[in-house]
């Protein structure tokens, strides 16, 4: 029997990680379908169930709640055991969290194509499912913090700081943003209206990014990057500064989505200023992770999993530079509602979150199943270059399309009339939408290679790893 099985509860972790892998492919495949529909609208097939407006929230929910939440739940429950040198607080509770969360995802898969939606971004699910989400999340919080409480070491490792923050903040803002009055079994109306609704929505919307896709992923990486690099965190003190910088400033930045809106100017300004301040802790954390990898330069030269992590860090730098830039009014005037925003979001989602998740899959899954190494290092290399090609094509195409689109919308004739029609702007960006589709398809093809490689890794009789003996 493996030592990890005796000392820690790993079976539920395996289930979470496999669920995350399945949802990553499903969610991103739907994204490729949506990209195809934007270039070939006939691919809607005149069906109300697979048209863009219904599949888009299924794509975002599949990636955020399916891929990201599953991988964060799985890795957090593993890391909190390892760093606390204790088993989970309650094993039965862990299975309730797993199956409860999969039920949430199945209900999303059914209801969103049927048109049941609140229409609030990243919060589209209707009130009965929201209640289930809150119940499961509270059980997850009890499980995580209960395990921390029974730890056998005094110290709380910094990864658990980030996990704890994302669990608490997501719970608070999700509940507040989804306060609603039910009108029927699958229809409700928000208790907020107008500018108040917009402020609360983007307090949630931006912090879903800030704490699920940033703080949670950082917590995961602060454990796995030192493990992979076989070196300690470069600066533990810097990791704490990173934590408090994000927690202190990120929750204020959401109103940069509402620049040039009816929201009070001072509220907009808070979002802009806090976005700019976030540069400092974000890049400090990126520097810390990069230097941790660079401590083992010999391994970094040949280890493609380390390259995935390093790529994720570089995309994190890019996204946390570009985000505050887009919050500045002059840039926002050009970029808002254009493809540039979509390019920014996906360079972060695919580059930072995607590359981090991929690196964890490659490093973690063989060890969870007691294998030493991957079935095919060659497929790993193919995946690395396919993923990079996909992200580069995707981001560059939408930067070009978005900047051109923004300028065309603003251009005026001498008499003050618009220089370009909306259709002319659409014609300009159409070729770039095809490039975006092709880039996304390359990225998903890489995920399929990864899934095949990892399947063979855990099923073929490879050498057992030292960790699992």
From TrEMBL:
Heme b 1; low-spin binds at residues 59, 346. The chain crosses the membrane at residues 12-40, 60-80, 92-115, 127-149, 161-181, 201-224, 236-253, 265-284, 304-321, 341-365, 385-410, 430-452. Gene3D superfamilies: Cytochrome c oxidase-like, subunit I domain (1.20.210.10). Belongs to the heme-copper respiratory oxidase family. NCBIfam families: ccoN. Its main location: membrane. It comes from the Bacteria. It is an enzyme of class 7 (translocase). Binds 2 heme groups per subunit, denoted as high- and low-spin. Binds 1 copper ion per subunit, denoted as copper B. It holds the Pfam family COX1. GO terms for molecular function: cytochrome-c oxidase activity; heme binding; metal ion binding. Residues 15-469 form the Cytochrome oxidase subunit I profile domain. It catalyses: 4 Fe(II)-[cytochrome c] + O2 + 8 H(+)(in) = 4 Fe(III)-[cytochrome c] + 2 H2O + 4 H(+)(out). Heme b 2; high-spin binds at residue 344. This is cytochrome-c oxidase.
């Amino acid at each position: 029997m493996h030592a990890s099985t005796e000392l820690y509860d790993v079976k539920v972790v395996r289930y979470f990680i496999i669920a995350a892998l399945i949802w990553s492919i499903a969610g991103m495949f739907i994204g490729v379908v949506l990209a195809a529909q934007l270039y070939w609208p006939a691919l809607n097939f005149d069906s109300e169930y697979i048209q863009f407006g219904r599949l888009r929230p299924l794509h975002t929910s599949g990636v955020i709640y399916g891929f990201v939440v599953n991988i964060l739940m799985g890795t957090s429950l593993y890391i909190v055991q390892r760093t606390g040198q204790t088993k989970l607080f309650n094993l039965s509770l862990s299975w309730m969290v797993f199956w409860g969360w999969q039920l949430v995802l199945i209900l999303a898969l059914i209801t969103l194509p049927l048109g049941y939606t609140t229409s609030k971004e990243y919060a589209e699910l209707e009130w009965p499912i929201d209640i289930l989400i809150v119940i499961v999340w509270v059980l997850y919080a009890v499980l995580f913090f209960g395990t921390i409480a029974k730890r056998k070491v005094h110290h709380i490792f910094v990864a658990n700081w980030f996990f704890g923050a994302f669990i608490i903040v997501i719970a608070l803002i999700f509940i507040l943003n989804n306060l609603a009055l039910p009108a029927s079994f699958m229809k409700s109306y928000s208790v907020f209206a107008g500018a108040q609704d917009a402020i609360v929505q983007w307090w949630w919307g931006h912090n879903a990014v800030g704490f699920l896709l940033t703080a949670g992923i950082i917590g995961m990486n602060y454990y796995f990057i030192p493990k992979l690099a076989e070196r300690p965190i470069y600066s533990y003190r810097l990791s704490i500064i990173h934590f408090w910088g994000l927690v202190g400033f990120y929750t204020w930045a959401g109103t940069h989505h509402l620049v040039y809106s009816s929201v009070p100017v001072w509220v907009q300004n808070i979002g802009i200023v806090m976005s700019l301040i976030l540069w400092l802790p974000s890049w400090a954390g990126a520097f810390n992770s990069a230097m941790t990898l660079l401590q083992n330069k010999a391994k970094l030269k040949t280890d493609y999993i380390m390259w995935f992590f390093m790529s994720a860090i570089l995309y994190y730098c890019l996204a946390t530079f570009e985000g505050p830039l887009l919050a500045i009014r002059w840039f926002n005037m050009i970029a808002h509602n254009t493809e540039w925003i979509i390019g920014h979001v996906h360079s972060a989602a695919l580059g930072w979150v995607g590359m981090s998740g991929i690196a964890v899959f490659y490093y973690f899954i063989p060890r969870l199943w007691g294998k030493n190494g991957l079935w095919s290092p060659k497929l790993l290399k193919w995946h690395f270059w396919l993923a990079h090609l996909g992200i580069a094509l995707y981001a560059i195409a939408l930067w070009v399309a978005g900047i051109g689109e923004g300028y065309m919308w603003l251009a005026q004739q001498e008499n003050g009339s618009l220089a370009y029609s909306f259709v002319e702007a659409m014609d300009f960006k159409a070729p770039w939408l095809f490039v975006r589709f092709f880039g996304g398809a390359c990225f998903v093809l890489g995920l399929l290679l990864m899934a095949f490689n990892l399947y063979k890794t855990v099923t073929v009789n490879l050498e057992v790893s030292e960790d699992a003996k």
